Amino acid sequence: MRVTTLRRGTLRHSPMLCEVNKETSVRHTHENNNKHEEIGTCKSRKSFMIGFTQPLRPVSNNNNNNNRYSYSCFATTSTCSSFISYRNVSLRTQFRVPVFPFVVLCSANSFYDFMVEPVPGDELARTISCNGKVSLKSLVATGLVDGAARIQETKPVATAALGRTLICALLLSAGKKSDETVNIEFRGSGPLRTVVAVADGLGQVRGYVGDRNVDLPPNRKGKLDVSRAIGEGIVRVTRNHYTWKQPYQGLTRIVSGEVAEDIANYLYQSEQIFSAVAAGVFVKPDGSVSAAGGYLVQLLPGASEETLKLLEETLYSLEYSPTEMIRLGMNSTDIVNKLAEGLNIQQVHKSRPLYRCHCSIDRVERTVALLPKDEIDQLVASIGTLQVKCEFCNRTYQLTPPEIEQIYQDRK
């Protein structure tokens, strides 16, 4: 059981603040009009703790066509007021809070829906050849990339760079252990400066770019100039698992700045794996993403020259790029089958990728508690309120001077 708690008895989230009174009432407060509405009562007048005991899941609602989600919660008496922090979903409607144990029902704001459950149509398919010499993976992640661009408010060039990196991270992590992570980091001389994506074996990914407002004219081919936006520099790929003594890290130079070519070069130079990597993002004039996906084909140890030649012929004969195949209606399984022409393959395994950010007010408080108090005091004295912004989901956390003081009191 993993419970995220927020001290001082306030559930904070924009655009709705949720507040639990120490006495009997449970209220929600809208930021716009500061209107309070009592929506439930508690039978205990003591301070108590609310915690989620399972992830968000859809529930049926016959009276409303909107999706609704349910958390199973528990509540216990406590000597201090500690409450759950709604940090992985944006809430916009009322809670239904009966007696203990709590069941909290809410509707998810569509702005963050893609972080709650996989977007329909997004899918990752993977398989290997029957002789065990070829690995094939394909990914459709249109909704995931569009959601990431929307919450981070990226310009088209930044959207393309971020989307391609997210796609490559998901492809590299697919089939790994659930707790194994793959971190891809581009550090270049271009205006983007940095592009980062982190994925795990569960198909969860997050990422950001150094400058989301980069806007460049198209390149000679009339496409988004991602290569110029990234520039020259290095690409670092880090694989890690909590059971390892230390992470595995590979470092190669950026050869083109187009992301997929650089990942293919990394796989060959650092991991000695012959690979074909493709990643694409189609951005419409209004900035939204209408197609995003890619594929990864790798020769495994012991592959013959005949197998290599067959794969080369298949890849060179492809008429469409990943985004073009997606826009033509092909799903991830269709793309895998297209890549596997001439090969006998095993059963195709499918999974659903999800954009997942792990930020929370708890992490912010723990970080602040590790900093010297005099430095925090000087910072608060100059700006009044401490603000921390998450690069992965663009959410801002605020701590007032009394809250900061309480953090250091708790540390003692």
From TrEMBL:
InterPro entries reported in the protein's UniProt record: Heat_shock_Hsp33, Heat_shock_Hsp33_C, Heat_shock_Hsp33_N
Chaperone in keyword set: yes
Keyword Cell inner membrane: no
One GO CC term on file: cytoplasm
GO molecular function: protein folding chaperone; unfolded protein binding
Keywords, in A-Z order: Chaperone, Cytoplasm, Disulfide bond, Redox-active center, Zinc
Gene Ontology BP annotations: protein refolding
NCBIfam families: PRK00114.1
Record HAMAP family: HslO (MF_00117)
Protein name per its UniProtKB record: Molecular chaperone Hsp33
Species name: Galdieria sulphuraria
